[in-house]
Amino acid sequence: MKRDKNLVWRRVDAAGLDLKGLKVAVVGGTGGLGRAISHLLASRGASVTVVGQTFRDSGVPGIEFLQEDLSLMSEAQRVAAALPAETLDLVVLTTGIFAAPTRQETAEGLERDMAVSYLSRLVLVRGMAPRLGKHRSAAPMKPRVFIMGYPGTGQAGSLGDLNAEKSYSGMAVHMNTVAGNEMLVIDSAKRYANASFFGLNPGLIKTNIRSNFLGEGSLRFRFIEWMIGLLAPSAETYAETVTPLLVSPDLEGHSGAMFDKKGDAILPSAKLTDDHVRAFLADSEALVARANVRVSNH
Ligand SMILES: NC(=O)c1ccc[n+]([C@@H]2O[C@H](COP(=O)([O-])OP(=O)(O)OC[C@H]3O[C@@H](n4cnc5c(N)ncnc54)[C@H](OP(=O)(O)O)[C@@H]3O)[C@@H](O)[C@H]2O)c1
């Protein structure tokens, strides 16, 4: 990863943020990093809607729940319509899994990691972006969308078999989701002037994300997550670093920027040329269409 030295933002303590009145949606806010960020945002006064499958925070002030299975494009489309994009200040996309050792397919015929970790986000962004900010009054910054993944690490993805039907490797599929998410930031920043789009790379953090790959509750999963827990910051520590970034005034005018685990700006992956991004997104849209969902190009 290469630092982007042209973008520096003024750090502030998360505990001092006053976020009363801030309207936020965290898709994937029911678990892991999205949940830690949601807790912190709500504790500072923001109104947060978390989208996921299992609500773990009933009774927490400031957090509301929308239940959806985002492995299905039809449900992603419903979430996009249900969320009040017109009045939201901040959207954070953290939904994700890791591809399983053997190929899994959703009821709509899509490879499951591609569906949950990338294509559902494409449907959400295209469904919400044109409406973002339409009914906000006198807001100091444009509405923001943060897309969490693994940007800036040189992944370009490989075209031709995005649904992994000809051959399957969990790692190759997951790298297509990584590349797709970075391209979604780059493309959306160019496509929509009414909102700002940013990429987040949290680095390795102990969560549930690898359970599908390593086996939920398996010895291997518990050992690897234990090691990551020893070596890496916790989800809560990451949330303390990144939450001030989400609302920093210094990001205004920098749509398309990406940030590493410390919140420092990083450069996008060099291989993501305009032609490649266009081709990858066209193939992604075609894959979503197989689930009978059409994503808007506007
Ligand atoms: N942790 C890391 O080491 C790491 C490293 C690099 C990148 N990332 C990225 O960080 C983001 C967050 O990951 P995490 O570590 O926080 O993972 P996590 O703990 O597994 O959380 C993932 C979230 O996605 C939701 N989710 C999963 N399947 C879903 C489905 N079918 N429908 C709706 N929601 C679903 C989960 O909700 P439910 O539990 O309610 O299903 C949960 O809220 C991901 O984009 C990941 O790629 C993480």
What's this entry about, in short?
The chain is an alpha/beta fold and 298 residues long.
How would you characterize the overall build of this protein?
Helices cover 36% and strands 11% of the residues. The chain is α/β, with parallel strands linked by helices. The protein has one domain: Rossmann fold (3-Layer(aba) Sandwich), CATH 3.40.50.720. Helix 1 crosses helix 7 (235-246), helix 3 (112-128) packs parallel to helix 4 and helix 4 crosses helix 8. The radius of gyration is 18 Å and the shape is globular. The mean pLDDT is 95. The chain binds NADP nicotinamide-adenine-dinucleotide phosphate. NADP nicotinamide-adenine-dinucleotide phosphate (NAP) binds at residues 28, 30-34, 52-54, 68-71, 94-97, 116-117, 148-150, 202, 204-205, 207-209.
Identify the notable features of this structure and list them briefly.
11% strand; 298 residues; binds NADP nicotinamide-adenine-dinucleotide phosphate; Rossmann fold; oxidoreductase; alpha/beta; NAD(P)-bd_dom_sf; eight-stranded mixed beta sheet
Given as residue ranges, the uncertain stretches (5+ residues, pLDDT < 50) are none
Strand content: 5-15%
Fourth-tier CATH superfamily name: NAD(P)-binding Rossmann-like Domain
CATH topology: Rossmann fold
The rounded distance between the terminal residues' Cα atoms is 31 Å
Q: How many helical elements?
A: 8
Number of strands: 8
- Name of the CATH class: Alpha Beta
Radius of gyration: 18 Å
Structural domain tally: 1
Largest sheet: 8 strands, mixed
Q: What oligomeric state do these chains adopt?
A: single chain
What's the helical proportion of residues? Answer: 25-40%
